[in-house]
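Changelog note: in this version the structure field was regenerated for every chain. One regenerated record is shown below for reference.
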Amino acid sequence: MGLIPDESLPYIESMIYLPMINIVLERDRVVFESGDFKLCRPYINIIEQSIKFIQNDLKETKMYLRKNNMRIIKGNRDDSCTEYTFFYGGYEQHRRYLNVRLRNRAEELLEMYLNMTK
């Protein structure tokens, strides 16, 4: 990434993806709660446990970024890409991510967090 230290990259990635999958799970919980499912409680429990894991990781990520004076701002989005701006050490770096890459990685992480509830 250039100016961003290599050890910070997982935190940068977490700050991009964790809010995304948290929103997905919050919406899914609403669907299960309001849906016509005979046994919705097990699904809601899995979603709620996953949200707790995500929120804990997001809290750690935010603490790391704050401690290291780093910020990430989501910028413009079009049909194919989303732009993010990273701030670190007085510098600003812009990066564009393919939306398909963002979706695929978010799915991988979502699956990982859902599997953590086992």
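Spot check on this record: The chain has one domain: 6-115. The chain has a mean pLDDT of 93.
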